[in-house]
Fold:
Amino acid sequence: MIRFEEVTKIYESGKNQVKALNNVSFEIDKGEIYGVVGYSGAGKSSLLRCVNLLEKPSSGRVLVDGENMADLSPKELRKKRKNIGMIFQHFNLLNAKTVFDNIATPLYLQGEKKSAIKEKVNNLLEFVGLSEHGHKYPDQLSGGQKQRVGIARALSTDPEVLLCDEATSALDPQTTSSILELLKRINKEYHITILIITHEMNVIREICSSVAVMEKGKVIEKGSVFEVFSRPKTETARRFVSSVLQDELPDSLKNILRNQDKNHQVFRIVFTGASTGQPLLSQIAKKFDVDVSVLYGHVTELQDVPFGNLVVQLIGDELEIRRAVFFAGQGDVEVREVIEHAS
Amino acid sequence: MPVDWSTFWVDILDATGDTLIMVGVSLLASAVIGILIGIILVVTRKGHILENLPVFNVLNAIVNVLRSIPFIILMVAIIPFTRLVVGTSIGTAAAIVPLIVYAGPYIARLVENSLLEIDPGIVEAAEAMGATPWQTIFRILLPEAFSSLILSLTTATIGLVGASAMAGAVGGGGLGDLAIAYGYQRFDTDVMIVTVVLLIILVQGLQSSGNVISRKLRRR
Structure:
């Protein structure tokens, strides 16, 4: 649906050149919710704006539904943009217009009939849960409600693609969840392809199916959300993952790590999918002559698949521990020894 | 010799009418010119929807030049132009021409500022919606800035009242003319006080109505 081909974007300011995007290539499938995560200045925002050509790539191509955006005439581009909805971090609503008129604006602009607009906007108001608020002005709404207006406005032209520019970054966690739920519903009910850029990894975890990690204008890692969360390859991706999975070991554990010996070894056990439900630890304790002590861990859900991450200490004879680890490492379970400085 | 107040009221009334006509007509014309130039100054600047730096730079320079000339000098300097337009350089009609040349660029700046106050994100949203530049200006930018534009125009109107009083110095008519001819040159303090009070009432009334209209439009 959206394809980036060697996209580079260079900003020139006087003598300085800033490469906001450096040879970015990847593809977003139709109907997918794709997340791009990165720290500020990583180039996410430029990337997003290259899709609807609010920013023009310096080189490379961005194809939306097979069409190179840069090849379109101004008129064709405007038509194409109606097919690409966009929502913003700061909502960008028209303050002088009511909620109803805000949502109706794209329809007014394309010259729809009043009666058709009314029906459409009322349906959208209901869809985003703002039926009672049509007559209000944006400054009478909460942040979450404003973003709902933004979403309804973006949907008014029946787009196939929705671009989300840090859409939840100005919202509190609870409101963020409800907006993410809404985006999920949009994706399911309208089959709209959604591209989200964010610096919040939990946004990616909650709704995305695929993710790209950006740093210094480059995509340094990409894959399914499950892949990247369970096996991050780069340091940056690891840091993002630990920001939501909290798999960094707390300081209190560092002492235990320092004091481990052959008979007290610490391991990280990563469960994925069905293995999460298995009584692995009690099996180990029964089958082998080792004691198991859980030091740290948690279970979460990624893409509706359970994902567990436990740090345990196995106490017992060295050989017995090794056999237990081998046993545990079968199937969907990954066991890694944890040593200090390399948790 | 003081004026005879039983007949002088008529002169005061006439002068008030002249002031209102001068301000009204020049406001109308300079608002049209000023809003137009103000819009162009915004949309042709770097990074905006109709970026065109040559147009921006030329207009910007013209506005700056006209804004730096003191009104009283401007009035005299453009006498040939005034004569060309209205056929005379004396009287109310002749005062209107320099008033427009004076207030047009002033309003352009005020409009420019009002439009620049709008969050650039809103312009971006309009672009993302597929709005034409024309639609962005007239359906998005101007409505968003409307209440602030009213305040700008109020400020400009009051500026025009002040300038129109100066036009009295070259026989432009109006309350300023009266204040100078009778109050200043003939030391008639009563006339001076009456005209100044009338000007104060006029300015107060304009500012208050401007505030009320602007607040209504802001709908908070």
